[in-house]
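Q: Start with the shorter request: fold the first protein.
A: Done. Sequence, then structure:
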Amino acid sequence: MLKVKIYDTTLRDGAQGEGISYSAMDKVSIAKELDLLGVQYIEGGWPGSNPKDMDFFLKMSKIRLKNSKLCAFSMTRRLNSKASEDPNIKALFKSQTEIITIVGKTWDMHVTDVLKATLDENLEMIKDTVSFLASKGITVFYDAEHFFDAYKANSSYALKTVLCAQEAGAKAICLCDTNGGTLTSEIKDITAAIRGKINVNLGIHCHNDAGLAIANSLAAVEAGADMIQGTINGIGERCGNADLIPIIANLKLKMGVDCIPDDKLKELTHVSHFISEISNMRQRPDQPYVGESSFAHKGGMHINAVMKNSLTYEHIDPTLVGNHRRILVSELAGKTGVLIRAKDIDLDLNKEDPKTKKILKLVQKLEHEGYHFEAAEGSFDLLMKRALKKYKKFFELEGFRVVIEKKSDKEITTEAIIKIKVKGVKEHTAADGDGPVNALDNALRKALKDFYPTLSKMHLSDFKVRVLDEKAGTAARVRVLIQSQDELESWNTIGVSGNIIEASWQALVDSIEYKLLKDNAK
């Protein structure tokens, strides 16, 4: 079986993405997850460029990785200096890694216009840097920056740079599409041409500026590359890097290429979501293989077919990558969607049951009003149980009031006062919050905490507001989606109203009642 090594650069190239800022401990946590996934190489950062990266390498020196090798990154030594005296090169040894990746100039335009060096001086910088590190027992990988643009501009010189690095002792040459604008056919042809000249590992490093990073990486493998660089979820500067999640899945499941251990493939979804969380980025629902919507079915015809034979609308078994099928409930799904969701929560329904038709009509009516149950399964479960009279309220609202106050230059303060009846007991509480929804949430929890202690284990993790009829201006109806989670799972609830507070209250109550219903069923 053909083998390809995975070189992850989430911690260095991925961290350059807009809005991403990892602490040293964040980077350690990510490195541990990548090690468990089984990638061969983890590029940790650039020692000497900033204290955080150096702190990370010091922390990692005390951790034993099981499957991966840690790499440090730097550039060729400066013009008119020696590698042995260059401060960036000296800092590399403090990382205590056995592998160092060096990036060098390949494009003649960059050499003359950016480095302000001659083409021969650049070759000497590559040779001196790689040979010096190799002489110290370091395994050197060489990243040929802008290689494909360089090759199209001056193929003879571009080839000289990578051959220079190989002759100086580099154990891998990585061809970089740094600007991310090369077409797939060009990547394949140029990689094949270089493969015939290189006798060490040949890598590919693609950026996604033309939306081709994944395709280009796989094409390079078909042309002879045996190492792929990329980042988890494709994070990175500008439009990002090649996304290793679908790359690994495609290599293993579509191309028959070995890249991580077979038993680690099912960890892809977990690792993808974990790194999104650490990166403080919303997970893309449509991300191939691991997104929440990757194996979600909404159309009634699709649902009917996939339940008879999953191959009709699923290109793989979602469990292979740690994901799962979702049947969405909407006005398009028909009775099948209702029945499947009912089965998931142990409700006994069938297609001929009048109750099924009743629920479907209710869904269609509410979705016409602006509800969106495919994104609010928690609210839909409650809707079904209420419609079937299999639900008893955990509390009753008697009334609430929200007070928002702004005094001159002071910050706005918000207080919610709430009256409810719980198990025959009247509760009257008040709480402050960061805005009206947070204040209502705090007040409601305060009133319920002595009756339902498990509410302390749940929290709101996301809050979205969507205007449904923009032309109505400030009088428009809004849809509020709330995501909540406890220590075991997350769920979504919904509210719709012409008043944003009322819509938020509906979604908030559903969120809490879903949690209580879930706990009560155990």
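Q: Next, the second protein, separately.
A: Sequence, then structure:
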Amino acid sequence: MKRIFFALLGFAAMSLAFSCTDDAETDGGGIPVDIPTSVELSEKELSIVIGESAELRATVYPESKAGELIWESADSEIASFTETEAISVIRVDGNSLGRTTIIAVIDNIIEKCIVEVVAKEAESVSLDRTSLELNVGDTETLVATVEPEDITDPSISWTSDNPDVASVVLGDVKALSEGTATITAKCAGKSASCVVTVSNVYAQSITLDIIKAELSVNETIMLTAMVAPSNVTFKDVKWNSSNSAVASVECIDGSPDDDIVNGKVTALSEGTTIITASIEGLAATCEITVNPVQVVLEDPKVGDYYYSDGTWSDGGLISINGDGTNPVWADVKPAPVEGKTVIGIVFQTDQSRMHSVDKENGFTHGYVVCTKSAHAPGSTETMYSIDEGISFMNGKKLGSSWYSDLNGYVETLAAVEMYAGRLDQIPAFDWVTTDFSPSAPAGTSGWYLPSTGQMWDMMANLCGEEVAEYLLGLRTYGYDITYYNDKFRVSYDVIAKFNSTISLVADSQKEELVPPVLAGKQQNTCFLWCSTLYDDADGVACGFEIGLDGYFWTGCEWVNSPNVARPILAF
């Protein structure tokens, strides 16, 4: 179209060499008189909102030449025109933002109209609220309405005049600290504001989950203080022991964002003390009685109950081979000692199957698996790692390397050290080592995630003879163990066999293994995490999967999938 436009200009320029006449007229003496042609546009400059139209009119003299009028647009992508029934009138359409020229040509006459196509701008901006009251930590969404709806650029910019009090991103307001902030939404020079008032939330009550407990010297217990309301701004719970020589208390807050603060109580000497948790003038107490240590006369064995004071008692095993085969259990399973708190089950006492680091630290009795799993409140499972690129040791895939890996303590410490200050990226290790209840007794290694070899022994000794026989055949397997017979079945419920070791433990002191519910459907298996990585680059970790229908698998899972983290300790 631009080429036609400039060609017309050239044509008009050449026409200047010729005379311009209309119908010949004569003067009174009959001599012809030349009447010059002229054209005049109704607008020299025209502003059109994009998407809209305007009328442009040409007045041609003499009128008889109006039919020779030619219209052109220098750039029809910016502004085009449509002829009307009257050839001297056109409708100019604004197509895209910019400037161009509409011309009217007749004979040697060119008339121009500069057309500017402009944006359709906002006439008003409004918010669904002009004031907002929030508590620290709250979020709220403001909705901005721009009129008219069909403006060219409807984008809205959001600002807060006091971002330390309340921030805003795309209308989402977050209350950060006590005070006032004005949130403004602006579009094309129009704006609307909302005044946000942010208030602190103060504690109204504090309660403890345990109000009275008996401990033995060196035994520990975790008290849980619950602060209401749950969104209290300053969850600054103070802990105190009325007799710190009898028992000490340490504040442990694993998750600053919840309403729970734990106090780890350690029994030091015989006597009584009052543990107090307080916040903002409110208090809750627990009476702690510390008794002398009871001496265990017999050596521990597989299946024994392990208590919070570091002692143990008979769990009913009469005999078992070192590889877990041929187990003989009492016809009637003994109950735990009355008044004691069970925190685990002994699953290995063979020192040849204990890691050298554990033995060097003085833990020579064996290994204990906890009666509870490590996970967030309200859940039964946790991810190994959010970071799919986790790498703190070489991966292990062979049956022989799985069996020989007894290094769960060192592997757990390596993961915790690598993610110091950001343990929330490795949830399984975080929940096992931080703020975990029940707490490990003094004089033990503390809880950690078992390695493949340690989990191997747990499965062989606590999950029945058929599982033990199957694992015995894999000890020297020199290939990828996760590919080996992944449809293996035993003749009994493996999960039930594991849970039978804690069948007489009080409900408050245990969590049985239960397959998860996924997408509303009860699953048939549980996958238990090991500390051992399957692959140190692809985000896969090792574990054992056991099922209700006899299923048993030495397998692996993506680190960011939810599964069971069952801690162990060395004692």
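Q: Describe the second briefly.
A: Residues 1-24 have pLDDT under 50 and may be disordered. The CA atoms of residues 260 and 303 lie 33 Å apart.
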